[in-house]
Amino acid sequence: MVLEGITVGGKTLREHLEVLNHRDAIRFVEEIVQKDEPLSEWQMKNLHRLVLKGIDNDYAGVYRDQQVFISGAKHIPPAPFLIKEEMEQLMRWYEQAETKKLHPVTRGAMLHAIFVGIHPFIDGSGRTARLLLNLELMKNGFPPIVIKVENRIAYYETLEKAHTEKDYGDFITLVANEVEDSLDLYLSAINKND
């Protein structure tokens, strides 16, 4: 309803803006895919800028200047003064020949996990990470995924394991299962139209 321009009773302006901003961020992801542009740190900041547009313009697309803690997590993201260096390391990892040889689902899951572990933004790092995951999937011909509500706890637990033990296997498996479900959904929709 929000996307159709209708306000929903009992919802805050922030919640409305989050929906509209997410739509705009998805369109930006689709544009990057259509133009076959290589991923850059600039695009990551622009994705985040779209996520926070009108919600927190001072921090939209800007690396955080404060320490953050993730509720319920043992992992503590790096101090603010380390973020630029960590993001540069992420981009070097992403651009390596070995990384490019990884299966797109593995590469996308790891990109997401490493990015969200850095937690470069004061707010919206998780949403931006999920958009980056979908960008990586879509660039390689996969449909976008949504982490289902029933998988949310497993999502956080497997990310925690990736961050604290540097073991990405369970998170990659979770993402692969979501990709499989998404593919099944698309295939069933195609079969219904035939």
Q: Briefly, what is this?
A:
This protein is an all-alpha fold and about 190 residues long. The chain has helices at about 15-35, 40-50, 85-95, 95-100, 105-120, 125-140, 150-165, 170-194.
Task: Provide a descriptive summary of the structure in words.
The chain has 194 residues and is mainly alpha-helical. The chain has a single domain (2-193), classed as Fic-like fold, CATH 1.10.3290.10. The protein is built from eight helices and no strands. The active site is at residue 119. GO terms for molecular function: ATP binding. This is Fic/DOC family protein.
Question: Which helices and strands, and how do they pair?
Answer:
Layout: H1 13-35, H2 41-52, H3 83-95, H4 97-101, H5 104-118, H6 125-139, H7 152-165, H8 169-193
Pfam family, one: Fic
Domain Fido: 39-177
Binding site for ATP: 123-130, 155-156
Number of DSSP-assigned strands: 0
Which architecture per CATH? Orthogonal Bundle
**CATH topology group:** Fic-like fold
* Structural class by helix and strand composition: mainly alpha
Number of domains: 1
Helix content: 55-70%
- Average per-residue pLDDT, rounded, comes to 93
Q: Shape from CA axes? A: globular
CATH class: Mainly Alpha
From the structure above, extract its key features:
194 residues; Fic-like fold; mainly alpha
